[in-house]
Write a structure and sequence with these properties.
This protein has helices at 2-27, 204-239; strands spanning 37-46, 57-67, 74-76, 83-87, 90-95, 98-102, 108-109, 115-116, 122-123, 138-140, 145-148, 151-155, 158-160, 167-169, 174-177, 185-186, 190-194, 196-198. By secondary structure, the protein is of the alpha+beta class. It folds into two domains: 2-67 and 217-239, no CATH class; 74-198, no CATH class. Strand 5 and strand 6 form a beta hairpin. The protein is elongated.
Length: 241
């Protein structure tokens, strides 16, 4: 019986973790460049924990999660500084926490005429420096080349990785490379679209259906847990006589 109680507790804990992931996805459904997160489940069956007349103890948890890097639809705005990567790759940006990567191309200019993200982080050029746009006519080529008043200047740093799952969500649509051995590589098979940005790839309907399923599972675990607790209490009371 105790094995059953422990199993239901682990199931409820996994449900709570999955609800946190779903809630985070839904809260970022309108965040440009956000990539949905999915839970990575793990189950363990312990034969030794079972007595001669008991079923093996089964535990489930969510030790990790993974990011769905599928492309999201592009939203056309006509804004000169809105950029979208159609295909592979990430914009490299310089932050107070080091170099990070994003698919959110809703950029702006700061007081120094440097290209920055909405949070003020500078967008990196191919040589690792800043990109200054001091001119009236700004054009971005499909390969990321930057033209100011028809003069070729810097080129956007657009990179990719052999293993994207080493990229950890660092908040919103920013990603941090958590594995030094997973080095940047030049992105291939992409084109930069000026006047558009990539939306979030969160499927709201799918997340809502998942949420309902998880809530129902949690309710079921709670009922089983309550029944087991009631039965255990009765057995304890019987043992007093």
């Amino acid at each position: 019986m105790l094995n059953g109680i422990f199993s239901t507790q682990s199931g409820k804990s996994a449900n709570e973790r999955e609800l946190d992931i779903i809630a985070n996805n839904l809260s970022n459904a309108l965040t440009a460049g956000y990539k949905a997160i999915s839970p990575a489940f793990n189950s363990t069956v312990i034969e030794e924990a079972a007595g001669p007349d008991q079923l093996p103890a089964t535990y489930v948890n969510i030790p990790d999660s993974y990011t769905q890097f599928s492309d999201a639809p592009l939203a056309e705005t006509g804004n000169t500084l809105d950029l979208a990567i159609d295909g592979n790759g990430f914009f490299a940006v310089s932050t107070s926490r080091g170099t990070m990567y994003t698919r959110n191309g809703q950029f702006a200019l700061n007081a120094e005429k440097k290209l920055v993200t909405q949070n003020g982080d500078t967008v990196m050029s191919q040589n690792g420096g800043d990109i200054t746009l001091d001119g009236k006519d700004i054009r971005i080529g499909k390969d990321g080349s930057v033209y100011v008043d028809k003069i070729l200047g810097e080129k956007l740093k657009i990179v990719d990785f052999d293993n994207r799952q080493d990229l950890q969500n660092a908040g919103g649509s920013l990603f941090l490379n958590a594995n030094e051995k997973n080095s940047e590589i030049p992105a291939e098979g992409f084109s930069v679209q000026q006047g558009a940005y990539e939306t979030s790839n969160v499927d709201i309907m799918t997340e809502m259906v998942r949420m309902i399923a998880v809530l129902r599972a949690y309710e079921s675990y709670t009922k089983v847990d309550q029944s087991a607790s009631d039965m255990l209490s009765k057995l304890i009371d019987l043992g007093k006589f």
